[in-house]
Amino acid sequence: MVAEIVSVGTELLLGQIVDTHAPVMARILAECGIGCTRRVTVGDNWDRLVRTLKEALDRADVLITIGGLGPTVDDLTRDAIAAALGDELETVPEVEARLREFFSSRGISWAESTARQAQKPTSAQLIDNPNGTAPGLFCQKNGKVVIALPGPKGEFDPMAYGPVKEHLSRLQGGGVIHSRVLRIVGMGESGVEEKVRHLMDAENPTVAPYAQTGEVHLRLTAKAANRDEASKMLDPVEAQIRDILGTMVYGIDGMTIEAAVIDMLRERGETVAVAESMTGGELGARLSSTSGSSSSFVGGAIVYTMAAKEAALGVDDHLLKEFGPVSEPVAIALARGAKERFGADYAIGITGNAGPTVDVDNKPVGLLYIAIATPYSIQCHEHRFRGIREDIRRRATQQALTQLRNLLLAVQ
Ligand code: ATP
Ligand code: MG
User: Fold this and answer.
1) 27, 95, 318, 341: which one has the fewest Cβ atoms less than 10 Å from its Cβ?
2) How close is the Cα of 55 to the center of ligand 1, in Å?
């Protein structure tokens, strides 16, 4: 059984609001064991909406629509579902009576447009909406199921997690799809794919890689009768992958590399400080974003200009002049300065050119140096990253965290 989700609303297409409901619906479908094969957004245009619904019904067993159930002229979903299913619209007297009472009790005059909310396609059952005026729809016709949910979050969430999830789970006979994400650093997507290629042909659980900035995620997904059973099916696959990739797997699901680093430092009772030029505070922000990071993250300095590097961290003027601010000696001096001034066990110094222009220094865009001072040594790596400014800065931050993690793994 497969489903498609159609989000309805011109404001979604214009980018004025973000479609947060469709991912919620996709997760609910997964939890009910129904594969979601397509998500579409369509504007409030009659022809395009009806065509989109018909096409989805040709492909999928279950069609879920979000939004456009209200009383205004641009709310077309109810009528469009009737048209796509070849249904008539009929008024449900109890709903109309309830709506009339609701309006009169608030002193609002009855508009004909409101009456539309009391209508339903002939093959539909109504889904109660205790938080709004427009009920949801559950239609079953010719072996297809159509479910319509309202757009406002306060109405959508309770309906989606409540009666809609129950309907879906009943349709599917109660199965679940459960995923676990293994998070990997130190190897690119194709490298990871090559190593786990033999696991990727399996159908249940499935294994699929996704490239992220400076890391790779492997999503393991199992279908089973319930979540516990699915989770048990994922365990041996996770164990196999950990055998192959070793410490490159730094965490699962919502874990981040900065949280992994902070955890390692906390266990060792050690601390880190930062000296950031090109990343402008991004590294400190990520290290401090983990709850409980204050036991391990001491602080740092954002030292953008040459003068700031000299004044705040004592980077020698002649180093800056001789090698330029984007250089290995300056990265090392930044790390050393931060370690001394902040009294940390480890300190990371980052300097580089994130572009888009070539700096005063004449160093190429994307060239950067990351130095890490440890209790025993200082090591520095040169990197060349491509991309726009934001990408280069984000990758530099990610690389610094990975580099620190590698050092901590090497010196147990
Ligand atoms: P109403 O009765 O308020 O008209 P409706 O069912 O017709 O409800 P829409 O008119 O499509 O729904 O949307 C109403 C509001 O709901 C939007 O302005 C937006 O705030 C929110 N909304 C709609 N669709 C989505 C979505 N896919 N994701 C997040 N929010 C949404
Ligand atoms: Mg509306």
Assistant:
1) 318
2) 23
